[in-house]
Design a protein that fits this description.
This protein is of the alpha/beta class. It has twelve helices and twelve strands. Helix 1 packs across helix 8, helix 2 packs parallel to helix 9 and helix 10 packs parallel to helix 11. The longest helix has 25 residues.
Amino acid sequence: MGMNRRNFIRSSALASTTLLVPRFLNALAAAPLAQREKILVVVQLAGGNDALNTIIPFRNDEYYRLRPQIGIAKTDLLDITDEAAFNPGLKGMQRLYKEGQLAILNHVGYPDPDRSHFRSMDIWQTGSASSEYLSTGWIGRYLDAAGNLVKPYTAIEADDTLSLALKGNKLNGLAVKNPERLFRNLAQGYYADIAESYSKNGHHHKQADYLYKTLTETISSADYIYKTSHIYKSAEVYPNSEFSKNLKTISELIISGSNTRVYYVSLTGFDTHVQQAPRQEQALKILDEGIKAFTDDLAKNKRFDDVLIMGFSEFGRRVKQNASGGTDHGKAGSVFLISNALKKKGLLNGLPDLIDLDDGDIKYHLDFRNIYATILKKWMQTDPSLVLNFQAELLDFI
């Protein structure tokens, strides 16, 4: 039996993207990442993680006075210093802290903070001021600034949809939850119809050319990720959470030598208005167990020096507990940084003041864009002024 043109395109694209992708795109995709290239992994804690019950100032009487029900008992805490301790769900983080692979920045935020989940997350993802409304993300603009050789797989989000953070003016990152499923979906279905229609059309227009170029680059990227993900299959035991599965995919790509500079992964469950203590501890435990498996995997494969993990949430919570055994949307929060290449580690800027508050919230003292600028300049080797419209003060954790 003969094979019609559409099915031929489908089957051929699934085996190899040669029919759909120009040779120069395949040549770029074939270039391996230098083993010492620095990689950033961004971990988004969605919902507004309560920093005060993550890094607990257990010697501060105000903490227990303002949180009589949800303040974590001293007997349950995991020690950090003589004044601060971890939430009991963070045993792996405690180990990283003691081994000098974890840094914590407290009271992080921005001027005129917004307590809306959506608006505050947009601010963090775009790297904007609270008065600015941007349609591109800070990682997307990093891609724009990185040059013509950048491809969609230079920044990967472990999800089925792409966050604003990875959208640029000229280039976007790529959403990849499952490399094999991504490639099969792109190589089949209506993408084959588009390719067939384009190949039949003898006179092309600018919009059609742009669409075809985007399509071929995406399929080429999917093919590259699919093939790269099969080079190394982790033997590390990861927990069964969706978050840990995503981290396992990321570790396999990193250890396989994928030409990817930024990975982005999210964990939900931090909007704790009600019964916060058990709910937050469970969410932090999912985070902790995933990070432990991930960093162990990197260390065993000698890649932990090359990877910086940055974890953030869109805001912190109110200092005083509410009537439902939880906390409401607040302002400043904490950022954690994990790597075997940190120059400074531990509690980098002290604990928050619980008496001098901003309308019941922890005051911000460190603008998050200083953290972004430091990572861009010192880790990603990119001029922060090309990405951020902000006069940043560089920090010294890397």
